Amino acid sequence: MIIGTSASPGIVIGKALLINEEELNIVKYISTFDLEEARLGQAIQSAKLELNSLREKTLQTLGNDKALIFEAHLMILDDPELLKQTLTIIKNQSVNAEYAFNTVANKFIDVFESMEDAYMRERASDIRDVTSRLLYKLLKKTKVSLENLSTPVILIARDLTPSQTASMDRKNVLGFLTDIGGKTSHTAIMARTLEIPAVVGLSNISTTIKDGDLIAFDGGSGEVVINPSTNQIEMFNARHLAFLKMKQEQSLMIGLESITLDGFHVELAGNIGTPRDLDALHRNDAEAVGLYRTEFLFMDRTSMPTEDEQYAAYSEVVQGLNGKNCIIRTLDIGGDKTLSYLSIGEEANPFLGYRAIRICLKETELFKVQLRALLRASVHGPLSIMFPMISSLEEILAVKKIWNEVKLELAEKKIPFSEKVQLGIMIEIPSAALISDILADHVDFFSIGTNDLTQYTCAVDRMNEKIEYLYNPYNPGLLRLIHMTIKNAVAKNKMVGICGSMAHQKDLVPLFVGMGVSELSMSAMHILSTRKIIRSLKKSECEILVENFLKIGTAEEVKKLLN
Amino acid sequence: MQTIVKVLNDEGIHARPAGILVKLANNYSCDIELLVDDNAVNAKSIMSIMGLGLIKDTLVTIKADGVDAEAALTEISNLFNNKFNL
User: Fold this and answer.
1) Which domains does chain A have, with CATH numbers?
2) Considering A75, A280, A439, A448, which has the largest number of Cβ atoms within 10 A of its Cβ?
3) E strands along A326-421, which residues?
4) What residues of B are in contact with residue A79 (Cβ under 8 Å)?
5) pTM here?
6) CB contact under 8 A, A309 and B47
């Protein structure tokens, strides 16, 4: 059994088809200018025809966003410098077109690969993709076509290019396995968009597996078996049936309300990190975004994202939600997440240190840029802003002071924004939970972040294996704090949600419903199964469950009660 | 003839503005070059422009040579000054 990174769920058994492209051997030989110029011209024409048809096809099947890749490839082939420099080499050195083109293309690839900006570095792979297409044409080789496969197969490759994923025959591609890539790599994203099971990051799968090998894999767990035994096949078949049953049950939940048998509604929202995650949210019928983590916009880059960049990202999400509410959390950096361009300094206890709102209240300019971008985006649809790591009322007052300054500034500049933006806080520090009755008067909503709340309430570092057992969602003290927060919010008629990983935990959902939670926010894949649970509950019974919970003192007993 | 402009876009000249610039430059028959420091590149070549990695506030000299050079310079300067209409 080999284990890789789960890219797209589903269980598959089938024959392997290796689609690794052979290394092109570009030899240099003497030729005449007229001949090579004509060959180059024909190859470019024919590559452009191919790209045009790929673009058309992608536009129809996957939409404009994905089709833009081929637009960019076409522009590269149209580049006069690429052509001119290639022709110069052909002429001056009396050599063949493929050698000349490859030399020039590599020069551009080097330029892009050495750039500081990660986005620009990625463009090198586009040039490589186009170059390989053109060289195949010049060498009169045909690329393995994935458009017309005669039998169902599992694709095995080092990686798949955008052209391959966009053009593949979906009927006969059971799944794919690749050597490289992570959860957010192009191939993984495409697999989820196409709903084809896939495992990536398998390091050398494309050299281990042979054409025609029988493969069984689980895209959800990342497990891959080459030439499985009868027992293993049975196991994968059983998992496959269970997966199908679950999918089918879940799809029955699409379009239904998330209400209990006695009519109590719990909003089921999604957690997202980038605008790209919206697709999955819509597919799983999320009712809102309960947590948009803005950190990703700030990470993996060399400078702070500008107000315009942030505005563009927030607007894209708000617009993409078609009127559903979006709770956007301001920068939560520090702890285990750092930024190369923002020095926090060495700290003995980073999780108890300079992080999240504490940074924003000190680096006020950084904070104001984000608030301005958020306010500007608020004209595109319902938007709420949530502040992380609040531990006192003083912090809320300080945040609101800055908030009012920013609003005033925009109003003076006549920059439009919505007056309906709601402000809320994360409840993830016990000192905030304990005065939540008072805090509720100062904000529009609470969102309970269970991961940090567990860590701070039980004084347990969840990365420390020796005390991992103490990081326990059934800890009655922790659950009482959650209960208290929800009760205090409900008493003041404020929205209260839960957005940590406890929000979708099957046995805890009835308890949260009994406490009166208004929203549960989770990653998209859990929404439909949680809806199914909620529709099977009675709030009145859940309230009795809460009463019984309040009488017990050990995590073990809580677990048993909820079972 | 030539003129000097400044990159006003926060993100600098990424793929999209570069594409817009190339499309505009191709409407003119004159030769158009962008000069930054010691680098001179063809304004009709998307890869050369992107390869410059122009960031915000960079000063760029636009040089045009040909019958429609004046019109080209005016339009391209406008494009820079209007942040590429993005």
Assistant:
1) 2-21+148-250 (3.50.30.10), 33-138 (1.10.274.10), 252-562 (3.20.20.60)
2) A448
3) 326-329, 383-387
4) 45-48
5) 0.66
6) no
